[in-house]
Amino acid sequence: MIKNFIVSPSLLATDPLNFGRDVKMLEDAGAKWFHVDCMDGTFVPNFSFGYSTVSALRKFTDRVLDVHLMIDRPIRYVDHYIKAGADYLTIHVEADSEENTLKALELIKSKGIKCGISIKPKTPVSAIEKYLPILDLVLVMTVEPGFGGQSFMQDMMPKLNELKTLVDKVNPSCHIQVDGGIDVNTAKICKENGANVFVAGSACLKAEDKKAFITTIEQ
Ligand code: DX5
Ligand code: ZN
């Protein structure tokens, strides 16, 4: 199964006072997806975007909105994010019981939205195995979630490899996404270990030539 390589710039690294300008700049640089980090101050020790930002983005851009929910018991809010216009809605497997996680995924799918599950660095691949047949995306965190600008954890590569083998067997069209410390070099390492969607915050926004940054990773 050939999957395209996609860069999903993380809007967490944009300038809050020039948000629209930065989104437009990334569009002009060829971004096809936008990664929107939503944090609740409980699941992770930080706050970021909420569904009102997703809704504003939906009116502003036709690119894919890849929403990463770092919130506790996401089932309480998935409906808001669906209505706001997310295209991909990714929840964390550590954020609720198995029963609620499954319910949240089914709810997302029933509304025709793509669903994803993310795992933190200490969570094994086995934690998502049972959901894999219905998933559109699995996100392997390559930093502890909560903050941009952290260093890439290369020790996540065996886990990425293990996931790739499983995805190829169970659900080959499912995207494998990495998030945290991704730049041109670390993206290459992740590509070799099975990832096809690359979230990049600081490195992408700091790149002098954003178009070159995106095309280099996507080729
Ligand atoms: C961290 C977020 C990331 C973050 C990545 O919890 O999930 O999406 O924006 O930022 P960089 O690319 O700077 O590590
Ligand atoms: Zn993220």
What is the residue-mean pLDDT, rounded to a whole number? 98
Question: Helix fraction?
Answer: 25-40%
Question: Main β-sheet: number of strands, strand sense, barrel status?
Answer: 8 strands, parallel
Structural class: alpha/beta
Strand percentage, roughly? 15-25%
Please give the count of helices. 8
Q: What is the H/E string? A: EHEHEHEHEEHEHEHH
Spatial order of the strands in the main sheet?
Answer: 1-8-7-6-5-4-3-2
Taking pLDDT < 50 over at least 5 consecutive residues as the criterion, the unreliable ranges are none
Distance between the amino and carboxyl termini: 17 Å
Bound molecules: D-xylitol-5-phosphate, zinc ion
So what's the oligomer here? single chain
Backbone CA Rg: 16 Å
Written overview of the protein:
The protein is an alpha/beta fold and 219 residues long. Helix content is 35%, strand content 20%. It is built from eight helices and eight strands, in the order βαβαβαβαββαβαβαα. It has an eight-stranded parallel sheet with strand order 1-8-7-6-5-4-3-2. Bound molecules: D-xylitol-5-phosphate and zinc ion.
Topology, please?
Elements: E1 6-9, H1 19-28, E2 33-39, H2 51-60, E3 64-70, H3 78-84, E4 88-92, H4 98-110, E5 114-119, E6 137-141, H5 157-170, E7 175-179, H6 184-192, E8 197-200, H7 202-206, H8 210-218
This protein binds D-xylitol-5-phosphate and zinc ion.
List keywords for this structure.
20% strand, 8 helices, eight-stranded parallel β-sheet, globular, binds zinc ion, 35% helix, binds D-xylitol-5-phosphate, 219 residues, alpha/beta, single chain
